Amino acid sequence: MKILKVIHGYPPLFNAGSEVYSQTLCNELSKENEVHVFTREENPYFPEFHLRKDRIKEKLQVHYINIPRGKDGYRHEQLDKVFHQFIQEVNPEIAHIGHLNHLSTGIVDVLFENKIPIVYTLHDFWLMCPRGQFLQTNFGNSDYYQLCEGQEDRKCATNCYNAYFSGQKESLEKEIQNWTDWIHFRMKEIRGVCEKISLFISPSRYLKERFVKDFFIAEEKILLLDYGFQLERFKKYSNYKARTFSFGYIGTHIPAKGVNLLLDAFIQMEDTAVLKIWGRDNGQSTKALKEKVKLSKNKIEFLGEYNNETIAKSVFAEIDCLVVPSIWTENSPLVIHEAQQSKIPVITANVGGMKEFVADKVNGLLFKHRDIKSLREQMEFAVNNPFTMKDLGKKGYLYSDTGDIPSIEAHADEILLTYYGLVGNLK
Fold it and tell me: How far is CA 195 from CA 99, 119, 230, 412, in A?
């Protein structure tokens, strides 16, 4: 089968969860199928919408569209034209979209017009929320990064896009209305896009329920299917002996991930412990986080990026517990799955897909979302009960008798069956 994968970033240029999953899936599918990836790069020295091709292996090609300056637009006519020509040359049998942010919603129109079935994996709330996470920026207010209960055009304009306002009182109402209109048309466009999607895939029950309840996607149009993983990466590596209890954080150093909340909780701990933080240096954000280290009597280490291929040895063999402190309602974090496959217990928040994959005192611990005191208490419990934590880690993945997370081989088989079903129905 000739498969097109559309994703807003692809390793090694972008290494967040949806990008890593897309790479894993494409590698597996390309063993028996021809796979083309359409993704973005941000080269400031190339013109916008320049398309280049990189052959990864015989049956896997990655095509990079250059968008170095377009950050908030959701539809780009020039990109759509390039994509249309690209489709004529590649002629895929099916398209699987992972994300359209930083690309163009017109991609769906091009695929639909060419009668190519479209699968769309939901990784966050971007279709429902212009910013993707239902996390308000609240520019200029003290209550920044507050959770949003639902999308409303004017609320989005005033709470999330006021950073773009001129600051002139005389034009304030006009600017609010302009952004309200912009969001209105954006949401109208997205709803039209959703109607052209053949099938959505949700990796968590929580995310599926949100799209059914809040965005009115028909339940039968969303397939519940968790991510797949390369299980051979998680060969057992023994933890260090007789060491101080070690917590770990894996991920980007952005506010939505709640790293500052984790640091505040850790600094307040009375018990001796170590906190190891992995992830790419994010400039000023990482620098600000490192400033907190000076306040801690306990040891905090910033260890930079890690190689996902060796995550078991380089990360999980060095910690006793993983902490996932996100302040938005994540849907199905890859790092939780990866820790569970390595039999490492997880401490995470009691909301969204995080609590879906971690049950309190079953395979990890849950703390009250965005609550520093609650997180600190659970971390202190972990330090004082290391053998209990080790037993929790042994439970692994909740939805498997063996505790194993889904393999990419089995996952790809299900994905292929879905593809063939849609292609067959179209014919």
Answer: 16, 12, 33, 25
Neighbours of 25 (CB within 10 A): 23
Residue 393's Cα: distance from chain center in Å? Answer: 23
* pLDDT tens digits, one per residue of 377-415: 999 999 999 999 999 999 999 999 899 999 999 999 999
Q: 92-132, pLDDT tens digit by residue? A: 999 999 999 999 999 999 999 999 999 999 999 999 999 99
CB distance 213 to 235 below 8 Å: no
Per-residue model confidence as pLDDT tens digits over 245-263: 999 999 989 899 999 999 9
Domains in the chain (CATH in brackets) are 2-131+179-228+407-426 (3.40.50.2000), 234-395 (3.40.50.2000)
